[in-house]
Amino acid sequence: MASVVRTYLFVVAAALIMTLGLATGAAAEEPFCFECHDEFPEVSAPHDPADSGECTACHEDHGDDEELRLVEEGAALCYQCHDEMTGKGSIHPPVEDGECTSCHNPHGSNNEGLLVVGAEELCFECHDEVPEVASPHDPVASGECAACHQPHASDNGALLVTSVETLCYECHDEMTAGASIHPPVEDGECTSCHSPHGSENTPLLVTAAEELCFECHDSGFDDVVVHAAMDDGCGECHEPHTSEHPKLFTANLTLERLARFEEAQGELCFNCHDAEALTTKGSEDTEFRNGQENLHALHLTGGAKPNKYGFIKKKDGQTCVACHLPHSSLQHSLVRTEFECKGIFCYTMRFRPNESGGTCIVGCHKPRTYSRNATKESSTARAGVSVSSGMQTPSP
Question: Between the CA atoms of 19, 22, 27 and 33, what dihedral angle is there, to the nearest 10 degrees?
Fold first, then answer.
């Protein structure tokens, strides 16, 4: 009888020990699962349940049944611990299809975020790799797609981490504070001009600089005479994003017809043209002169004239834009054909060049002929000189 009692007590004690052991959870579960399943190798980014031996957080206890069963199917299992990611405007297809394991290893990985491969490779398993280009975007070149794109879901199109109006400014200085702002910049349409991943055109331009501007702006800059500054595109004179000067100028240039001369009011032109040669009275470094008289200086710096009381006063000079067009012209030396004063037609201009000078027929003074070989300081058109009122096309 005593031996029967001892046997009973031993069985009860063993049962209690087993029950208490199972109640301790992870401590007993780990060796139990790994009696049949291989232990997970050590990795730098283990999944917490697998790392702590809580297999039943995701798997049902299947006993002798060899079929491995999950407590929930697909993404529903992941969303037991992770926030659901399907309530956004833009959802990554693997997320939308509940295929979390397309990108993540459920037990552990040597890649951050439990990724199945390195982040710089993962995206290109489904998406085309960006071809090697002359001007790659830095995040793309370094495989940092997540710098711009959310991997799961976003309220912004193309899974962007923020709105397209502000995304570029997270790395690039904001460009909306100037006196004049390029409309695509003001509207946040950076991709109108720049390719976000890479381009053969620097800097990330969607097409060559000398062609890009004409996709929006009239290409009517192809008259007989074209400003040499345009050979390399518009960037010699215009900022592409914003400027403190009107018309996105890279330097100051007054657009008024008349102004008291200061070098600063024609700074943009004087970046290439010699200000001293154009404003010094006796300079011979300009083709626009009558003998020794520098006609550029006469126009730019103005002159003295008597007022109705007989006193001499300074007359404001003509500015560069009063006589010259900035892009192209039908006349020699970019001479304009007409001028508008505050949007209203003001006067016409006809210029007839010759070997030593030319004749100007303009609305602001009588027709005048000048010659670089002249001995007098000035000369009006002589009587009998035939002056055509037609537009003069320069020789090629």
Answer: 130
pLDDT tens digits, 135-147: 999 998 888 999 9
Q: What is the DSSP letter of 115?
A: B
The H-assigned helical ranges of 125-243 are: 138-141, 164-167, 183-186, 209-212
* Verdict on whether the full-model pTM lies above 0.85: no
Output the CA torsion sign for 271, 272, 276, 282: negative
* Tens digit of each residue's pLDDT (9 = 90 or more) over 184-202: 999 889 999 999 999 999 9
Q: What is the DSSP letter of 159?
A: G
State residue 29's pLDDT score.
Answer: 44
Angle, CA 177 vertex, CA 174 and CA 180 arms, to 5°: 120
Q: Which two tokens stand for residue 181?
A: 């702002």
Q: Is 233 left (phi over 0), alpha (psi -120 to 50) or beta?
A: left
Is residue 224 within 8 Å of residue 353, measured between CB atoms? Answer: no
Task: Tell me the longest C-alpha to C-alpha distance in the chain.
Answer: 153
335 CB-near residues (< 8 Å, 6+ apart): 323, 324, 325, 329, 349, 351
Residue 313: per-residue pLDDT = 62
> Which pLDDT tens digit goes with each residue over 32-74?
788 888 888 899 999 999 888 888 899 988 777 777 788 998 8
